[in-house]
Design goal:
heterodimer; A: about 260 residues; alpha/beta; 6-stranded mixed sheet; 4-stranded antiparallel sheet; 10 helices; about 35% helix; about 30% strand; globular; B: two-stranded antiparallel sheet; 14 helices
Chain lengths: ~260, ~325
């Protein structure tokens, strides 16, 4: 089943487009990796897909309906955006932040019920922060904050996760845990679109890859078909060696600037 | 914890009520005031307690609630712990418009002063927000600097009006800039009630949204908040609260800054828990502040704005030094 379709999607900031006509289709139980050099428009594309940044052209359809016809709260129950960071001006606790994920289900008046508490507890457990609910988020490290934001997205129980560099601040153990979590979610039917800088993580995780350059789609398809030595030279300006071991996924090793 | 804290709040509120009626100001000793409250006071004491102290107390409670609530809402909306109607120039905008209306309107139209104050408060809110809006959204620093600019401009307007106003109107105009409950009447307290009650409902309705906005606008939009609509309504509610407060009691600083922070320490972050308690705590603090203003140098009386500033400035400095 197709969850999200973007066609000719354009948008940016202050009247200047950063994303120039991107096409993307996301099906359930899949993981899509968005790759590209700094400034290629990856985060902007995620914002456009989530509808938090209005598009200037093209269309996004969520579950077959134009995104513009959805109420924001309905969108938030269906897809969850995990930003790289949020403003932390106040000393909120981990639990208070994760509980925010239930807001789309509660509306203005209804207090959280047993299912809401359960969803929060499950999300905290999934990211390995089950015992940390009372800690102030301001005092956490960058990687821990990323896990809090992932837990907040999981608490929404959305079918589609849009993650902006979720693994950037994670240590190796938590990167592996993150891969594991995403696979479990996938088995539960959740799809994800993940902006990544780590090509090897993309190879491990992704069913399809979208490579952006200068705000446009440069290549898309399966990781094996898209991630070639030529692409890395042309898009990232680096010479890479793709090592294909007899077992397991290939490994991309950057050698030098092209 | 929460139950005991709520009980503490009720005790402070009762202390403010008792203090406001029994102490402070001429006309009735505490004992005489007590007899008035039990229905046995003489005429002079009754006039002092029910005619002077009671309206003053009710007005102080309502203004305190309004300012504290406006501060709490603005801090969440702008994701800025330093937001306060006074520091952001919102009270200043209200005061400039109210002073202008007071000096320029014919006596029959003096009832329009609150409306003018509210318009001024709304205009300066919009102006501060527009000035603070950078490419990455309104940053706390830009917001405070914009507040400085608006405060400077409104002070200039007020000074010009005071210099040019016809003398019979001067005292009233001056009272607006100083912040005082000395001119409280029973009518003023009634007039202010809708300016507190209606925004309180709006803010409670958007309480959950405001909680989400405290982590930034994009984060809130991602969780289903219609940011543009909520922002407009909350700004209008805050402008109504500040405009109403300024129109009836003048500019009183720092209540909107201090109260929400103190309440957050006790009741945590959730706006739906925080807002009603912040309103009550602001009411109690302002009433106690007014009691201090009446009593400290009695029989002379300080403007209550002086008392709140004496408490508020060190608090503000402490917050500023802790902020990133």
């Amino acid at each position: 089943m197709t969850l999200l379709v973007a066609a000719g999607l354009r948008g940016g900031y202050d009247g200047r487009d950063v994303v120039h006509g991107v096409d993307l289709e996301v099906r359930e139980r899949t993981c899509t990796a968005i790759l590209g050099p700094n400034g290629a428009g990856k985060s902007t594309l995620l914002r456009l897909l989530a509808g938090v940044l209005p598009s200037t052209g093209g269309t996004v359809e969520l579950l077959g309906r134009p995104l513009a016809s959805w109420r924001r709260r309905e969108i938030a129950r269906t897809l969850a955006l995990v930003p790289q960071q949020v403003q932390l001006a106040f000393p909120l606790t981990v639990r208070e932040v994760v509980e925010q994920g239930r807001a789309p289900h509660l509306g203005p008046w209804r207090p959280p019920g047993p299912h809401d508490h359960e969803a929060v507890a499950t999300a905290l457990t999934r990211v390995g922060l089950a015992g940390a609910g009372g800690r102030p988020v301001q005092r956490l490290s960058g990687g821990e904050r990323q896990r809090v934001l992932l837990a907040r997205a999981l608490a929404t129980e959305a079918r589609l996760l849009l993650l902006d560099e979720p693994a950037a601040g994670l240590d190796v153990r938590h990167q592996l845990a993150f891969v594991e979590t995403l696979r479990e979610l996938q088995a539960d039917g959740v799809a994800s679109v993940v902006v990544l800088h780590d090509w090897n993580l993309a190879l491990q995780l992704a069913d399809q890859v979208l490579v952006l350059r200068g705000g446009s789609s440069y290549a898309s398809g399966t990781p094996a078909a898209v991630l070639t030595e030529t692409l890395f030279r042309q898009v990232f300006g680096v010479e890479v060696e793709i090592v294909r071991p007899t077992t397991g996924a290939p490994v991309i090793v950057a050698r030098r600037q092209a | 914890m929460s139950g005991r804290a709520d009980a503490g709040l009720v005790v402070v509120l009762l202390a403010a009520l008792a203090g406001g009626l029994l102490l402070g100001g001429p006309g009735a000793s505490p004992g005489q005031a007590l007899s008035v409250l039990t229905g046995q006071g003489d005429a002079d004491a009754t006039a002092a307690v029910l005619g002077v102290r009671l309206p003053r107390l009710v007005l102080a409670l309502a203004v305190g609630a309004a300012l504290a609530l406006a501060g709490a809402a603005l801090q969440s909306l702008l994701a800025n712990p330093l937001a306060d109607p006074f520091l952001l120039g919102i009270s200043g905008g209200g005061a400039a418009a109210a002073t202008l209306a007071f000096a320029a309107l014919p006596a029959a139209a003096i009832g329009l002063v609150p409306a003018a104050a509210m318009l001024g408060a709304a205009a300066s809110t919009g102006l501060v927000w527009w000035m603070a809006r950078g490419p990455l959204g309104p940053s706390p620093t830009r917001m405070l600097l914009a507040g400085v600019a608006v405060n400077a401009a409104t002070s200039a307007v007020i000074l010009a009006i005071l210099a040019l106003a016809p003398s019979p109107r001067l005292a009233g105009a001056l009272a607006i800039t100083m912040g005082s409950f000395a001119a409280a009447t029973p009518e003023a307290a009634w007039w202010l009630a809708p300016y507190v009650a209606a925004p309180l409902l709006v803010l409670l309705y958007h309480g959950r949204d405001l909680g989400l906005l405290a982590l930034g606008e994009e984060s809130a939009a991602g969780l289903g908040v219609e940011v543009a609509i909520v922002r407009r309504r909350v700004f209008l509610a805050a402008a109504a609260l500040c405009g109403g407060a300024v129109a009836f009691a003048g500019v009183i600083g720092f209540v909107g800054l201090i109260t929400p922070h103190l309440c957050r320490l006790v009741w945590g972050y959730s706006p739906r828990r925080l807002f009603p308690r912040t309103a009550l705590a602001g009411a109690a603090l302002t009433a106690l502040g007014d009691l201090a203003a009446r009593s400290l140098l009695a029989p002379a009386e300080l403007p209550v704005g002086v008392v709140t500033a004496v408490i508020g400035v060190p608090f503000f400095v402490a917050l500023l030094r802790r902020s990133p």
